[in-house]
Amino acid sequence: MSSLTSRDRRCLEPFLDMGSGLVLNFSDRTMGEFFQEQVGLNIYDEKYQFKGTSKAKRMRAFWELESDHTVARALDALIEWGEEFRCLPDDPQQRAAIEAIIARLKLSSPVPEVDAFTASVNALDFTAAAKHIRAAIEANEPATALDRVHVFMMKFLRTLCERRGIAVTREKPLHSLMGEYVKHLRGSGQIESEMTERILKTSISTLEAMNAVRNDQSLAHDNPMLNHDEAVLIVSHIGGLVRFLKTIEAKTQASQS
Fold first, then answer.
1. What letter does residue 166 receive in the DSSP assignment?
2. CA dist., res. 127 & res. 78, Å (int)
3. pTM check: above 0.85
4. How far apart are CA 184 and CA 2, in angstroms?
5. CA terminus-to-terminus distance, the chain
6. Helices 146-163 & 228-256, crossing angle to 10 degrees?
7. Phi and psi at residue 206, to the nearest 5°
8. Of 230, 182, 233, 171, the residue nearest 205 (C-alpha)
9. Are residues 3 and 69 in contact, defined by beta-carbon separation less than 8 angstroms?
10. Where is the Abortive infection protein-like C-terminal domain (predicted)?
11. Using the 8-state DSSP alphabet, how is residue 45 labeled?
């Protein structure tokens, strides 16, 4: 269940215009579609109606039942929806209070970088791996996602290398892809500090070690799983790396447009 306090709810409910049993400008259909698309949940499931059947009461049940991270994802998406349809209050102080609540909820995740695990191209295996990783993290079971993290990184780095004209073959291992990618970043002047370069170079050997974790300590094979704390460390580290590389790529694309 989420850690939302009664004070948090008193901030959220007027912000989302829940006073009359509604939520923003949602109809029954659009609210159902929204929750399915944004958090992969059926808001009309019976488990969300123990407080009542109105949209607002289902939202309150959702806040009570779901994890901090899932609630934060939904709130972020609700803000995007509200901005698109211009149905949010025009109150900077109120907005700041809501964003502070969301930030606090995100910090409670065992892996703060969970949102980094999103597919950057529309490929079924990439999307499925990303979804599995996020679900495992939200369930606080990161060890069950280690093999999917390996799959995700292979697809992610192959995509980055292909964009930069780096040869990609099926046989090229994860750490080799990272090595060639870092070399290209350095050659194109996209790394400003020696420390950043060292961190990225260290990631090459880190990814090489990930092969053993995948083969011997994950669900990829019939193995005993890695302990929880080390799994959190590994997934957090990879998530931070992915987020940084996505930032580099976004800047590159912006400069070329």
1. -
2. 22
3. no
4. 43
5. 44
6. 20
7. -60, -45
8. 182
9. no
10. 175-245
11. S
Smallest CA-to-CA distance from 68 within 112, 33, 34 is with 112
Residues 104-117: tens digit of each pLDDT: 988 876 676 777 88
Measured CA to CA, the distance from residue 211 to residue 215 in angstroms comes to 6
Residue 165: burial class (beta carbons within 10 Å; 0-12, 13-18, 19+): exposed
For tokens 């995700």, name the residue: 152
Q: How many helices (H) and strands (E) does the chain have?
A: 10, 0
Give the pLDDT score at 87. 97
Pick the closest to residue 161 from 142, 149, 175 (CA basis): 175
DSSP state of 225: P
Per-residue HEC secondary structure of 30-42 comes to HHHHHHHHHHCCC
Q: Which one, of 189, 173, 185, lies nearest residue 241 by Cα?
A: 185
